[in-house]
């Protein structure tokens, strides 16, 4: 009867539940866990945490323990915050060092009764603790002798939504925006709370609601009310609302004639605006600003510096304890300097000039969310400025939602990138105060455009909480929570995920290549595309391939000398092709097609070999997935199968199109045994996909084929 | 346990199940029905019908009857088509007259066993029959002595999707397009089949996939493959795929220098293109064409007539049995003639010139999907031309998705509009060969943007199947299937729905007014807006309000004489304000603010009274809905409550803004007891909602406030 009724309902296994998929667990584990879940002790103020706990118990264990104020038997779960009913005296010292978001999970004894304590300094910390506790069950870990102590390593863990007011999402591959601006603030879709809950479950504590290519209308009273309604939904989950601020808002919605940050009227306008925001959103997080970048207005339009602009906003936000996240993703309009150098050259001289509540938000690499980039040289080079690391969760340059590319290893590589600024071990993770992830969330039922892209949202949150976690451990956690704890499923799926990013690097941009994607939408290969509005929006600017060789010379000699922006010994290493890690080789050097690689192959052969290897990995993923049908429900299995087929087709397209193009310059034969491109270069050049999703109008300038 | 497990799943009651909500029915009814559902007799080819039947039985009755080839006991359901296992000899004559889509449902006796026969001439007819049978259960009707005989009255029952290739929908209020062009044809979302199933359940047999403001790229091989994949999903459900064709496709994707329909190369291009389409979609339905209308290209650009253009396409489609649906929604670019006259003047002279497989698709009224319009004068005036009636299911001019406006009465009014062309009783429904509904479907979970907008999709299908059905009966059916059979819910909800369209007329455009909506997006009132690209896109063109009075003079005297396009006695009636039905009064006449109305009130007082009455109706709907919480699940209840609150707010906005504006011209006091507008006219004029959804770029020309 139950099965029939459930079956008659909606497609339950559509991925909507994410990793919070509280389905009944195997009998022996359930029995064991039930003896640790006999009752819940919670104070009324700990409502949301207790609710989540009960939801987990009900779903996972099919029990609904009573909730009371006192322990009455063995197996209680005690939720405690200072001031709640639970006696936390024994843990006071411990709690004191946990901050407002940390939590403890401890096996304790109270009046002879065995119990599990989840304790924190705040209701949000407690909610985090409950999610942490449930994760133990979801991943089938023992509940005996628990001694968990968790606190976030990074204070700002923020999703950046590039969502527009018309419901589209720049670089979004999961449908329309989940914010329904039309019905806000009057109608609160259940999905808003589901979003907040999912974010809280992985420790995300902020959301920038609107696109960094910002619309001033977001700051009008009408839209502030809408943002305030979302803030009310998010607040109990510990998520602060931020807004992207358009620098010229004082002109566009304020009726002023300038947006000069040193103009008194401008400052007064922002002061007034910020006060207005805090009236409706008392815990407003602050502004994210993309200024003087890709056509966005900024302080330089008035002869002022980034610091002038950021500090003006910081000054009006400071009394309210708000922050400015100022993006370092800028490159000059005149393009006379290697683009990879520009942010560093522009911002390093400003170190020390920013107000205390300015965070400089720096992308992981010096270009723009490529499959692989070396670390951004700004990290470590601005010791007096709080920095945030910005990574992309949405896969603009990584095959969109249909390519299975687990980004955990990319985030890990970025966080662990050793800048050597303070000597060996100066990883980026040590110098950041925040981590921003450009969200991949949309209104599609599976949230992220594909089942496996949920893992990237998850990994972002988990790594922002603790950058020391391994991306493999996170993948395993996610697989167990999202799909199955059967090791016959877990092991091959985690293995598949772990190699998937390297495979994408191989079939798109191996050996340090970058930005070979077709212009505008960045979907599919376009290494031949030149022309258009800006040279630095075209692939040849990056690969510099010609009859002699390939790669961008950024060395000290004839190159752009961007290597000098790195600390030693990196600068010296990157300056010498023999010392440059192979994965960054063509990022820093233009080398002959015949350049001898460590493998003994020529560069040309090595390049083709990498392209081929990427395709083979995808084929291998398909073979693996085909064996996993018994462990996955049919809808999620079918979606993943279809997407892997798309990925294989597109990986081949990438390989063949790039090889066809580069071969037209190198004039060299393919290494023995490797198949030639399926089509001619002209055929690849003729492929046009003008409606590939996520493409903002402003990049749509035509390019020459 | 069941409840717990189900509860842990997705939000089951989010409206995704539409009216096919096969939830367990009350015990006594279930027991009764089970005795009619003991086994299913079906041939293998009747698979989809049998599957649907079992799905219904499982959900509604919690039984899964065995499926066999022979009746073995009392209570069998026998599915039969000629040639299937069931012996249909006794019904052969009956079936012969049913056509390929009709069905019978009969209580029969076979070898002494009581059984229910569902019979049809095709598998699609059988599927329709199964949906018809299940509807009996869903609406709690007796299964004794059944003698149902159904066949569609109108052959073409088609949804028009105004969906763009970038995933947006023109005039769409339910999120992004449900067609994911990016992943088609490789991935087939489960939703595609769910869509087809829902359409089949109400007899819809065609879908135009793409916007009438068409993009030629839809006709490229890449996109034809995508359309073909959808056609494969839809085919078993009896739904043919159609495409909107851009008239200049031969230039844009064909490389020709002209799209002149009389040019041999152009004709050859289309011939080739159509052959290519039929290779991948063997049952392709044909083209929908918007030509020489609102900036779309067409035959007139080459000095040819609409007939020249339509016939050229018809000729190349005819060998494949495809049709051309040619839209009559045209109005001249020079605007020197009353817009309501233009389609008639342009098309009536062409009657008899169209090929047999051209259907002229005419909107229900002469303007454009207003809350109320008189019937379009073309109906009945082109006896030699097959006509289709085009109505809007999406609510462009009707408050979008958040206004509860049940359109059944509007469709009914349109279908029953008596043209008198063949004397009394010449209703539009008698002269049409097809009905096209501009779809309100999007990717939102509830499909249509709101729970109650599902009723408009439903009513469209049911009325296209049989225009004689009453919209009230359809509303009741829908409420019972979608929400509850409890008469304490059914009666007030149906009553609420039935008056809702008249209420919208009242608070937006009473007494024959039209097109007072703000420009471009058509959201909210804008009766003061003039200027912009075209006078006939602005409200003053329609209301003609001034110090003396209000209304558009379309009479024979000083007016535009559009009344003469109607047959007698309508023409005479509409020519005389005293004889003109009050609901069309200001459509045909410009009258003094003091014009005495039948009620004894002045026109001004009557106008204000109507505006006020509309708001009061919405208030009454809110009061009614507030009493219905016990009968509805919490999510659908909350959504509807929130939307009704929005509707009340916006109905007031409409009333107050229109009264403030008209009062600025009439200078007359409000009738006693009616509240003045809440804000000043200037305040209403200052309201701007640039990101109201569904607004296509091409209407965004700025207008003067």
Describe this structure in a few short sentences.
The structure is a homodimer of 705-residue chains. The first copy, chain A, is of the alpha/beta class and 705 residues long.
Descriptive report:
Two copies of one chain form a homodimer. With 705 residues, chain A is an alpha/beta fold. Chain A is built from 21 helices and 16 strands. An eight-stranded parallel barrel of chain A has the order 7-8-9-10-11-12-13-14. In chain A, α11 links the parallel β11 and β12 (358-363). In chain A, α3 runs parallel beside α5 (123-138). The longest helix of chain A has 33 residues, at 634-666. Chain A is globular and about 80 Å long. In chain A, 56% of the residues are buried. The interface between A and B is large, with 55 and 55 residues.
Q: What are the defining features of this structure?
A:
homodimer; 705 residues; alpha/beta; six-stranded mixed sheet; disordered N terminus
Q: Mean of residue pLDDT of chain A?
A: 95
- Give a short account of the largest sheet of chain A: 8 strands, parallel, barrel
Which residue ranges of chain A are poorly predicted, with pLDDT under 50 across at least 5 consecutive positions? Answer: 1-11
Question: Gyration radius of chain A, to the nearest Å?
Answer: 26 Å
Helix residue percentage of chain A:
25-40%
Classify the beta-strand content of chain A into a percent band.
5-15%
Quaternary assembly: homodimer
Biggest interface, chains and residue tallies: A-B, 55 and 55 residues
What characteristic shape of chain A results from the CA principal axes?
Answer: globular
Total beta-strand segments of chain A = 16
> Kindly, what is the distance between the CA atoms of the first and last residues of chain A, rounded to a whole number of angstroms?
61 Å
Number of helices, counting only DSSP H or I runs of 4 residues or more of chain A? 21
What structural class do you assign from the helix and strand content of chain A? alpha/beta
Sheet with the most strands: spatial strand order of chain A: 7-8-9-10-11-12-13-14
